[in-house]
Every structure is written in structure tokens, then in C-alpha cells.
Specification:
Layout: H1 12-27, H2 33-47, E1 53-60, E2 63-70, E3 77-79, H3 83-91, E4 95-97, E5 115-122, E6 128-136, H4 144-161
Antiparallel strand pairs: 1-2, 1-6, 2-3, 4-5, 5-6
């Protein structure tokens, strides 16, 4: 059984370093996509403050389909290029959105969401696995430190699948 120790970090960079270490321990030796995505989502949701939803959308056909997540029920399918998740999938770049109301074509799965960060998940050969999506009810919840931290967490997730 995996028991995550309490995070003791005094600042955000340290928090993400500790969380990345926990992700390594949690996913160590397991390569199943769904199992790892479910545990990863649960760990992040129960560790990071002020997030209302976090989870995966996996590439399927011309778009994305929801995978394991934590939070309220979500949109099931997103067309590639639509919303923040679609933009991340298309551009293969992390999308940091301090105010979702200002993002063109934002898709509201949760009307209370105010900020969002989405990290694309790309295999070493360039194929898109999907995206990691995190929402908050707080305006401007995510910054560049969160972007770097989420990218590190996602790199650990992808490494576990390889």
C-alpha cells in the first residue's frame, strides 16, 4: 500500500519537488495507463491547494476523451483545437490561463472554474497521449512555477509508462 507522507514544503518549488518524489514512488513499477492516471489524479487532487478538478483527457480519433480524474463530472469529449485542452493538444505547449473567461473558445465543464492549466502529454516519438488538465475556482491560481511543476509531474507520469 502506498502512503504519501505529508508535504512539508515551505514554498511552491519545494512542494512540486516533494510531490514529484511521491509520484515516482506511487507509480514505480506500474505501467498500466489507467491505474497510473487514476492514482496520479488522486494524489495531485489531495495534495495541491485550491484546485477544483484535475484529470486526464486522452487522444482518441480527432479529439480527446476524458480519462481518470478527481472532481465534479466533466465533459466527455473535446474536439482537438477546442478550448484550453484542445489548444494544448494542438500546440503541444502548456496552456496557462489565469482567467478562463478571457480565453477564446473556453469550454465550461464547471461554471465556477476561473483559472486552468493544461499540460500536453507527448510520447518520446512525438505521438500525443493526451493532456493533463487542472482547474481552480480561484482566479489566477496558476503561475509559471505551477507550469514548471506540473510539467515535471507529467514527465514522471510519462516516464512510468515507458
Amino acid at each position: 500500500m502506498f502512503e504519501a507522507p505529508a508535504i512539508t514544503a515551505a514554498d511552491k518549488p519545494a512542494l512540486y519537488r516533494e510531490l514529484a518524489s511521491q509520484v515516482q514512488g506511487l507509480l514505480h513499477g506500474e505501467r498500466n495507463l489507467i491505474a497510473n492516471a487514476a492514482n496520479f489524479s488522486a494524489l495531485v487532487f489531495n495534495t495541491l491547494p485550491d484546485i477544483s478538478w484535475c484529470g486526464f483527457y486522452f487522444a482518441e480519433g480527432d479529439g480527446l476523451v476524458v480519462g481518470p480524474f478527481q472532481g465534479k463530472p466533466a465533459c466527455v469529449r473535446i474536439a482537438r483545437g477546442r478550448g484550453v485542452c484542445g489548444a494544448a493538444a494542438l500546440s503541444r505547449q502548456t496552456q496557462l490561463v489565469p482567467d478562463v473567461a478571457a480565453f477564446p473558445d473556453h469550454i465550461y465543464c464547471d461554471g465556477a472554474a476561473q483559472s486552468e492549466i493544461v499540460v500536453p502529454l507527448v510520447h518520446a516519438d512525438g505521438r500525443l497521449l493526451g493532456v493533463w488538465d487542472v482547474d481552480s475556482h480561484r482566479l489566477a491560481r496558476f503561475d509559471e512555477v505551477d507550469a514548471a511543476g506540473m510539467e515535471t509531474l507529467c514527465a514522471e507520469f510519462m516516464r512510468a509508462l515507458a
